[in-house]
Specification:
This is Fatty-acyl-CoA synthase/long-chain acyl-CoA synthetase. Helix 8 crosses helix 9. Among the domains are: 159 residues, ANL, N-terminal domain (Rossmann fold, 3-Layer(aba) Sandwich); 75 residues, Luciferase, Domain 3 (Luciferase, domain 3), CATH 2.30.38.10; 98 residues, GMP Synthetase, Chain A, domain 3. Helices cover 31% and strands 25% of the residues.
């Protein structure tokens, strides 16, 4: 019975209102039979999911987790991942989602700094990435103990590792054993742990993508996540019993966020372990999903350019969220069914995901060409990047800064980076360029560090990338600068083409010459079949390194 689970059917006190754990208990009490988590091969109702999350919480408590303790997850998307997220919160802990694309150095760096006491991983994708082997490489001194514990000088607080899978690993215990160990933990212990945390406590320690430097751990509170993604639920008109599909990884705020949106509205979050366009289309059709959150062009266009795609397959869809320049947005909107409205936003990990968003009723030109107004509880301003507390005029470019309910608390164990990013008054520096018009609508102009200087002229990579993305045989394009004795630097395009494409580098350069000033036209096209990725972003510093090689 749901009433026997933590919370006892009573509304939360002022100290616990808004925590994700308490929110889950409330939704399971109110709508036990509605679907909360949906994967292509499994659907879980709120009541069934809560039972599984409580079982996970009891296991974590039996393993020694106490309120405020850290649990790391190195996994691909799965129902178990979502159960772990909420199980950790029901046990009063903090989840540390580890980027599943990390390599040895990156994983070693984060495990050495995140203070995780427990680590949960999987063998579900061993044919692509062997996570247990990666952990061994990242922690070469990892040793199993006689009582199921582990030791590693590189991760001094880590004491237990669990595997969601079937293979035997000397240093990892089977995850079902964790659940079994929790059977003796009483419900009262989970209730006490849940209520030991408040909305202003850290919910997840989410490491930034590391596109330009070592990852930094953003402390995101329950209140920040709930505020950011409740606002997004309002933007798209998400209703009880509806469904929101996202293929974004749960180690990224783009995966966690839609899950929170679904939770606060009594809706379903739909996801998948890896992106397969045909499987996604079938899942969306079966569940009649009303909202899609692919967020990034590789996923959005991957769905809309799939061989089996037809607009009528998305006839249930009302909204789609994708972040891209105007040209790409216009192309995507044309591929969608007429009833589906394409939206965009501006967000980042430090803002718990959502900072601005376009509205359903905005004129199409603004909805597809700008990044929208701040969500409720958020302020945005544009400042001189060299004098970060000096504002620039309306429509003038500068550094985007924000403050409000969704701002991260701090970079974990990094007071210097925190002080450099959070200014007096709570304003957060984003490192992104943009402008605000007279109506307060944001236009994102790109990462300040990515802007090229070609013969004294500024070149925005976004502009060139957006144009290349409209070529019918281009799946993805990225622009970086190559040093030039004559011009300082010149643009070079890395391009991934669609299956069966026949275009040449010369074809794509000619395509650009018709629409761009000569100094913006790529001097070279390099074709690629894969990208150096962080969570969801392409690491341009690695592309630049390829040019140097």
């Amino acid at each position: 019975m749901v009433s026997a689970l933590p919370g006892g059917g009573e509304r939360a006190t002022a100290t616990t209102e808004g925590t994700l754990a308490v929110e889950l208990v409330h939704r399971a009490e109110e709508h036990p039979d509605l679907t909360f988590v949906s994967f292509p091969d499994v659907d879980l109702t709120y009541a069934a999911f809560l039972r599984r999350a409580v079982a996970m919480a009891k296991g974590l408590i039996a393993a020694g987790l106490r309120p405020g303790g850290h649990v790391a997850a190195l996994m691909t998307n799965s129902p178990t991942y979502v159960e772990l997220l909420f199980g950790v919160h029901l046990a009063g802990g903090v989840l540390v989602p580890l980027n599943a694309r990390f390599k040895r150095r990156e994983l070693s760096y984060v495990l050495g700094r995140c203070d995780a006491e427990l680590l949960v991983t999987t063998d579900a994708v061993d044919e692509h990435t062997d996570f247990t082997a990666l952990v061994s490489e990242a922690l070469p001194d990892l040793r199993p103990g006689p009582d199921g514990t582990v030791t590693a000088a590189g991760a001094p607080r880590l004491r237990r590792i669990y595997l969601d899978g079937a293979k035997e690993v000397p240093f990892a215990a089977p995850l079902p054993g964790l659940i079994e160990a929790g059977r003796g933990v009483p419900d009262d212990a989970v209730t006490a742990a849940t209520h030991a945390r408040t909305a202003d406590d850290t919910a997840v320690l989410l490491y930034t993508s590391g596109t330009t430097a070592d990852p930094k751990g953003c402390e995101l509170t329950h209140r920040a996540l709930r505020g950011s993604w409740s606002a997004f639920a309002d933007v798209v008109g998400l209703r009880r019993g509806e469904a929101m599909w996202t293929p974004c990884p749960f180690f990224h705020v783009g995966g966690i966020g839609p899950t929170v949106s679904a939770l606060v509205r009594g809706a379903a979050v739909m996801s998948m372990s890896h992106f397969d366009p045909e499987v996604a289309l079938e899942h969306i059709e079966r569940r009649h999903a009303e909202h899609l959150f692919p967020a990034f062009p590789p996923l959005t266009l991957g769905l809309l350019r799939a061989p089996g795609y037809a607009p009528e397959r998305l006839r249930s869809v009302r909204t789609v969220l994708n972040v891209a320049p105007r040209e790409t947005q216009e192309m995507i909107q044309a591929l969608l069914p007429a009833e589906a409205t394409l939206l965009t936003d501006f967000g980042m990990t430090e803002g718990a995901g959502m900072i601005t968003a376009t509205a359903l009723d905005e004129p199409e030109g603004d909805r597809l060409g700008r990044n929208g107004n701040p969500i409720p509880g958020i302020e945005v301003r544009i400042a001189d990047p060299d004098a970060p507390e000096t504002l620039v005029p309306v429509d003038a470019p500068g550094e985007i800064q924000f403050r409000g309910v969704n701002a991260f608390r701090a970079y974990y164990r990094d007071p210097e980076a925190t002080a450099a990013t959070i200014l007096p008054g709570g304003w957060v520096r984003t490192g992104d360029s943009g402008s605000l018009n007279a109506n307060g609508s944001l236009l994102f102009l790109g990462r300040r560090k990515d802007v090229l200087k070609v013969g004294g002229e500024n070149v925005s990579p976004l502009e060139v990338e957006a144009l290349l993305s409209t070529h019918p045989e281009v799946r993805m394009a990225q622009i970086v600068g190559r040093p030039s004795a004559r011009y300082g630097e010149v643009p070079v395009a890395f391009v991934e083409t669609t299956d069966g494409a026949e275009c040449t580098g010369a074809d794509l350069i000619a395509f650009c010459r018709g629409d761009l000033a000569s100094y913006k036209v790529p001097r070279e096209i390099r074709f690629v079949t894969s990208w150096p990725m962080s969570a969801t972003k392409i690491q341009k510093f690695r592309l630049r390194a390829l040019l140097e090689e």
